[in-house]
Write a structure and sequence with these properties.
Blueprint (H helix, E strand, L loop, with lengths): L1 H16 L4 H25 L5 H28 L11
Length: 90
């Protein structure tokens, strides 16, 4: 269990360090999602709960990643820049 907390801390640190590049930010968010899913799965396994909640969590993760990638494709086609600092969101 301690390993997952270290993974979460390292993922959050990596997210704060590579936040300039949009694709790397998405990858770090996916690593955070995978770490949380593993913690959630172990929790459900430990207390002998049903795994349908884990399946719902995975579905939400797939939707989140597909929305992130579609936003990346839209921004690259619109601005031809992949760096967050160059986005003019206002």
């Amino acid at each position: 269990m301690c390993m997952f907390f270290f993974m979460m801390i390292f993922n959050l640190m990596a997210l704060s360090l590579v936040r300039k590049h949009y694709l790397m930010s998405l990858i770090m968010l996916e690593f955070i999602f995978i770490t949380l899913f593993n913690m959630f799965y172990l929790y459900l396994n430990f207390f002998n709960f049903e795994y349908s909640l884990g399946l719902i969590y995975l579905i939400l993760g797939v939707v989140e990643s597909s929305l992130g990638l579609s936003l990346l494709v839209f921004l690259v086609r619109k601005t031809t820049y992949m760096y967050v600092n160059s986005f003019n969101l206002c």
